[in-house]
Amino acid sequence: MADRFFPNVMPSFVNEDIQEEDKVTDEDSLMKLLSTPYTSLSKQFQRSGLDLKEKIVMETWGLSGQAMHDFTLYSGNLGTALLLYKSYQVTSNESDLFLCLEIVKACDSASLASRDVTFICGRAGVCALGAVAAKHANDEALQGRLSESIRRGIMHVLLDVELKPDELEDIKGTLKYMINNCFPSGNYPISEEDRKRDVLVHWCHGAPGIALTLVKAAKVFGDKEFLEAAINAAEVVWNSGLLKRVGICHGISGNAYVFISLYQLTGNIEFLYKAKAFACFLLDRAQKLTSAGEMHGGDNV
């Protein structure tokens, strides 16, 4: 497992330093970020994120001549559209919103023949993002067309997931079974057949994904066992989750969500700090490590 992540040598908690400091050297630049107050650091994150957005839009949409080779959210142009929508949410820049819609419309046309109905790899993602963006842009025609597709999907799901009390107990029992069958390390197997491979600490496989599910379970059921298990899984993420990729599914970005979800549930500032630490690691080192070939620039590579 160790060859998949960078050793986490960051302190488990660092207090904010509200005093102005002199310029520091590269070797302690990460420590400086960790002690930077959240209000100041959020501005750095935003600037860096917006710069990266411009680069991504240019490379995936501008330089391609707006060609549609892959419409999906996971590895295609819909991911660029989602990035633009997220940017619009932060900045209220309508140029981002309208470019998002332009890309969504292209994805809509490209996905009509798709038989994949999932959110990240199929047409559901196109419909969901398109309907939300169209509402913000007052594009009633697009909103109406895509919302109807979503409505049908929601009704289908609701018909399948109306749960009775005994079914809720089955869910709790399954979660407890998973907790009781984790690896000695605290990580989780990806399947019943894969109990000898304690390798993956991903948002999609292993402790990170389980932690997010357990946080949800703790919120729904109010069961302390689920919260404690989520915290234990988060410790695995802290120790082994600085992956050698930057993305959501297989990278540091996705693993940071574990700490955000725990902070939202508990209000414990230590979890917010750990999310901040993972983001600071990316801000400080991702570009250098990627340029040096020590880190992958995304998930699907």
Structure class:
mainly alpha
CA distance, first residue to last residue: 19 Å
* Helix-strand sequence: HHHHHHHHHHH
Bin the strand percentage. Answer: under 5%
Average pLDDT: 88
User: Which value, in Å, is the CA radius of gyration?
Assistant: 21 Å
Number of domains: 2
Q: Would you report the number of β strands?
A: 0
Question: Could you name the ranges where pLDDT drops below 50 across 5 or more consecutive residues?
Answer: none
What's the shape?
globular
Query: Biggest β-sheet: count, sense, barrel?
Result: none
Keywords: Metal-binding, Zinc
InterPro entries: 6hp_glycosidase-like_sf, LANC-like
Binding site for Zn(2+): 204, 249-250
GO molecular function: metal ion binding
How is the topology of this model organized?
Blueprint: H1 29-35, H2 38-62, H3 77-91, H4 94-111, H5 123-136, H6 140-161, H7 165-180, H8 207-221, H9 224-240, H10 252-266, H11 269-291
GO molecular function, one term: metal ion binding
Keywords: Metal-binding, Zinc
Binding site for Zn(2+): 204, 249-250
